[in-house]
């Protein structure tokens, strides 16, 4: 089998750079090797795919063509569990996906709008004003409150407070530089007690599991309820054989929703606050669009605003939260452009490198929302939520949440950054995010722009 070219650097050295300077790692190899980058050998060669046509070949392939290669290693499996939608293949993946889709579609999705706005306003009302506050702390508080409410219907009480605290601590553990090292260097995954990084991770995760299982058990013992939260819908869901989800299946899907639906959106919102401040012309165009709503508090109208939508699309283009769409191992040969890849080959469609292509996105380092108003991009050209049969089921919710939160923030408050210098992303676990040093000063507006949101 003919394979693309790639680096001969020892794997451990490449992993150090991937962990500490992920964007430089990808861009250096792309400049050197082009659209296909060989990064591993042996029985399972591994290839980065950076061309839209190659990505489309992966997205168009039937589900049975691949198995998910668990790129996050033991950390991801330990955190999410064996029944997580992100880690399942084949029929099991399709079954869980069907059970999970209804809460993220159509009218059900629209019912979350007012809740998102209310939570944003509540968090901001409690945020100190006229003093620097970490941007991520605010966006994380908003998204964690949103996802806990959507998933469990929880907005207060002892279990809510415990889950909120434990999830924040757990995600900060694997989001730290040392936590990232735990992901990419399995030899560090040693439990030397509660003081060790891996030991802390295991103990925090066990406490989160206990709370989730308690919530599942209590809900199952209650009479039938018509709750609108996702757990209520999943408890009532049945597969084609009429079978409900088991407690472990429920736990694994709930923790997946809590982590994926909170962590990634918090990073995207932090980038939104950064870009609107860093580029005043972007903020001005957003304000003009909001004023043209003429006082409307119709959240559906806000969700459809073209420039606001383009801003959110550009946030996810320039620095996509996930650098890859998911790691796929071929179970049968696949032709991808000029290469015939054999079974066992591991393919990494690279979101970041596709989004940085000069032929698709001229001046790709420039934050320019207008590019999304000037043309449409195919699913293999713009892929912040992955694609094919594994596209993120929460993509519509994430986009809606980004738009409503940003609109609420900037129409009710003045948010100014404490440092105007350009920012580069840093690694946060398996994702990339703004650095924790990003801070802002919050001031309530004396006049709300166009009385948006009432």
Q: Mind explaining what this structure looks like?
A:
- With 454 residues, the protein is α+β, with helices and mostly antiparallel strands.
- The protein has one domain: Cytochrome P450 (Cytochrome p450, Orthogonal Bundle), CATH 1.10.630.10.
- The protein contains 19 helices and twelve strands.
- The chain has a five-stranded mixed beta sheet.
- Helix 13 crosses helix 19.
- The longest helix has 32 residues.
- The chain is globular and about 65 Å long.
- It starts with 10 loop residues before the first helix and ends in a 10-residue tail after the last strand.
Write the topology of this structure.
Layout: H1 11-20, H2 22-33, E1 36-40, E2 46-49, H3 52-60, E3 66-68, H4 73-80, H5 90-100, H6 106-110, H7 113-125, E4 132-134, H8 135-152, H9 158-175, H10 177-184, H11 197-221, H12 230-236, H13 247-278, H14 280-291, H15 299-303, H16 306-318, E5 328-330, E6 334-336, E7 339-341, E8 346-349, H17 351-355, H18 371-374, H19 395-412, E9 413-417, E10 426-428, E11 431-433, E12 439-444
Parallel strand pairs: 2-8
Antiparallel strand pairs: 1-2, 3-5, 4-12, 5-8, 6-7, 9-12, 10-11
